[in-house]
Amino acid sequence: MLRVNDLTVRYGAVTAVDRVSLEVPEGKVIALVGVNGAGKSSTLAAISGLVKAESGSVELDGEQLSRLPPETVVRRGIALVPEGREIFASLTVEENLHLGTLGRGDRGSAREATEEVLEQFPVLRKYLKSSAGKLSGGEQQQLAIARALLSNPRVLLLDEPSLGLAPQVVDLVFDVIDGLRDRGVTVLLVEQNATRAIELADFTYVLRLGRIADQGSRDAILSRTDLISLYLGG
């Protein structure tokens, strides 16, 4: 289980994340939602080691990950798919996937893992020799997720995976996330499409001004009609 305790992130005088605590149980999809500027992406950045937290702790199965560099956090089992996907457009799909296997060491294990993600994301197989920059937005998002899975994470952090995608492609991305859960992948999902995220997630945390403003199961959150207007910008 991923546990975040009293996490605080500041950028100069601005407190982006204010004593946030949350839990991500194994095999579950947990959503973190809120309006722009609520501190969602900063929370993921601090968990993944990309941003240094001023205080608080991040633990994975009891192991302390706070203040470790991002490459070490990846090796310990947390992989981030950042907002905007950040694939290498000039490299082929195959080369992008290879980058995800670099921490494995064993070439046989890397080949086996690559074949496994290609079974999960079959659309990528026919584009292996193509430039990643030629993929559609939805295909690039699948590539970004597949590349992250190749690091064999215990927890996958997804930052705004539907951002900028057409509605039908958004449906595809959410189907992919649902499929990850079916395969036992643990996911912490930050998503601007709050209603879709809440409907998908097993449990949701609502952020407002860097703090946890509300939390609950899918049914509990969806029954709170006041949340949309109060915290989610609806």
Quick structural summary:
The protein is an alpha/beta fold and 234 residues long. It has helices at residues 40-48, 70-76, 93-100, 107-120, 137-149, 167-182, 194-200, 218-222, 226-231, and strands at residues 2-11, 14-24, 29-33, 55-60, 63-64, 78-81, 155-159, 186-190, 203-208, 211-217.
Notes on the protein architecture:
The protein is α/β, with parallel strands linked by helices and 234 residues long. It has a single domain (25-52, 67-232), classed as Rossmann fold, CATH 3.40.50. Helix content is 36%, strand content 26%. Strands 6-7-8-3-9-10 form a 6-stranded mixed β-sheet, with helices on both faces. It has a 4-stranded antiparallel β-sheet with strand order 2-1-4-5, covered by helices on one side. The longest helix is centred in the last third of the chain and has 16 residues, at 167-182.
Beta-strand percentage range: 25-35%
Distance between the termini: 32 Å
Instruction: Using the alpha-carbon principal axes, give the shape.
Output: globular
Query: How do the helices and strands follow one another from N- to C-terminus?
Result: EEEHEEHEHHHEHEHEEHH
What is the chains' assembly state? single chain
CATH architecture level-2 label: 3-Layer(aba) Sandwich
Report the count of strand segments.
10
CATH class: Alpha Beta
Report the CATH superfamily. P-loop containing nucleotide triphosphate hydrolases
Number of helices: 9
**Coarse structural class:** alpha/beta
Lateral strand order in the biggest sheet = 6-7-8-3-9-10
- Topology-level CATH name: Rossmann fold
Assign a percent range to the helix content: 25-40%
Outline the biggest β-sheet: 6 strands, mixed
Mean pLDDT: 92
The residue ranges in which pLDDT falls below 50 over 5 or more consecutive positions are none
